[in-house]
Each structure stands twice: as C-alpha cells, then as structure tokens.
Amino acid sequence: MSELSTPEYRGGVLAELIRSGVVESLHAGHLVLLKSDGSIDCEIGTPSLPIFPRSAVKSLQASAMVRAGLKLSPEQLAVVCASHSGSEEHFRVIRSILNLHGLDESALRCALGNPLGREESAAWGSNAPTRLAMNCSGKHAGMIATSVINGWDIENYTDPAHPLQQAIQQEIETLATEKLGNIAADGCGAPLFSISTHGLARAIYSLTTSLDPVHLEVLNAVRSYPLLVAGSGRLDSRLMSAVPGLFMKEGAEGVQVLSMPDGRTAAFKFADGSARASGVLVHSILTRWGVDAPSERVDILGGGRVVGEIRSVL
Q1: Residue 123 within a domain
Q2: For position 9, what pLDDT does the model report?
Q3: I need a labelling partner for 52 at 20 to 30 A (CA). Which of 4, 21, 95, 252 fits?
Q4: Helix (H/G/I), strand (E/B), else coil: 96
Q5: 3-class secondary structure, 117
C-alpha cells in the first residue's frame, strides 16, 4: 500500500452526499479553521501533512511581486491574483499589464489553455488554446512585469532558482512561518511548493491581518474586483461580491482558502481533488462564523426530483 493511500493522507470526512436519508458518498480531506486571534478553532484530518496549495497562494505570490517593485492599478493586480475565466475583460487587463513594458502575449511562458469559465468556453468554441486564455496568464503577466522592473531575465522567470521565484518562496515562508518543500511545476508551469494545511491557513491569516502596505494593496485589489479574480458565476467571485470584506481563493485539486477582515481564516484540501462540495463547505464555515452568505446548496436528484443534498460535517 502506498503511504498516500493510508488513512492519515485520506484525511477526515468534510462533507457527505445524502440520498434518501442514506450516506451515499463521502468527501474526505484536511481542514483548519483559525479564530481572529490566530489560534486553532477546528481541525479535521491531518493538516500537518504537506499539500500542494496550487492557485490558493496567488495573492501571496502577488505580494512578493509588489514587494519587488511591481506597480499596477487595483484591477491589474486583481488579475495577477486570478484564476480567471477567460473573458474579454480578463484579456484586456492582462494585455494592459504587458503593454506597460512594451510586451505582448508572446512574452508569456505559461502553458497553453482554453477559457476556464463555462460561458467563456462556449464562446471560445473550437479555437486553438493560447497562453493568454490559460487561467494563470494574469499571474504570469505580473511575473514578467516584475522581472522587467528588476532587470531580471524574462525568458526563464519560471525557473525555481530565478530571483523572482526565490522572493516568492521567502514571502510565503515568512507569512506561513513554515519552510516550503517538494518543488514541483504547477499546471501553468510556474514553480509550486508544498506546504501543510496548517501553514497555508497561517499564511492567509498573516496576509489578512497584516498592516504591511504591500499586503493591504493586494487584499484591496482582490476585494474590489472579485469578478476579475475568477469570473461570472464562479464561487470565489460570487461570494466575495456578496459578502463585504470576504477574501477567497480556490486552488486546483480541491484546495480553498478564505478569511474575514478580523482574521478568521479557513484552509482546506479535499483528498480526492474534487471541488464538488467546496461551496457547501465554504457556506457552512461562513455560517459558523455568523456571516450571512447566499446558499451554496447542492441538490441530489432522483427521477428528476430532489431526494437529497451534499452536507458539510461542520
């Protein structure tokens, strides 16, 4: 048996699918909730184990870029923090970042991709994938701009040894008070470091409660332009638009972080990589915090009628 298939890696149950009163399926994983003073309110699974946070750390990466001299408008900075849906508005803002430095999308070194959003994908149709359409292209535009400002090579900015990536690693480690490990490549091609769910929660808590002008600038951008951070109809954009002060960022493979201005923070990772129960779990966390938010109920159908739902264990 692989160690990754052992119970501690599978984690604890975070959500259940109920059909006609019977638990049909379980979503397990790792979760940490922090109180406004940074102490642990709740933990499930084994949150000390390493995970790949994926795009949940984009605001932390953006903080390192701003600290290194990146100067952008709030909407441009929001797109740097985004896993965008691929709308024309997203493309416009990303191009504007590149244009500041006399560059165009050919400078991007992210993977090729198609729009992530449902409506945007339908509009894209059978067009070939492009680097601009890849959902991390805003982050890559920010990385290129930061490299230009500092005189760093823009051809190899995705190398873990590049000064930009070293600065990003230092920023995350400082906020998380944890050393990162297991250097890998994210789906977009940028370096990816493993971190514990505990460390991820601490990093988001530190970002949220920081008085550092860099962190305040990043959070203000994300909260001010939630539709640019994801897109129409998507969980992060939907809830940040509805709940004043809420910060959220999803990551691939079932990772999610969220926080309120007073420091209450959550980080979780579904062990199976599914995001099917993410909205339900996020809503239950907000309810636990006494925050009024739109319902994220997921109905289970049988014969065309509702026979159950997905429920959070919180």
Answers
A1: yes
A2: 73
A3: 95
A4: helix
A5: coil
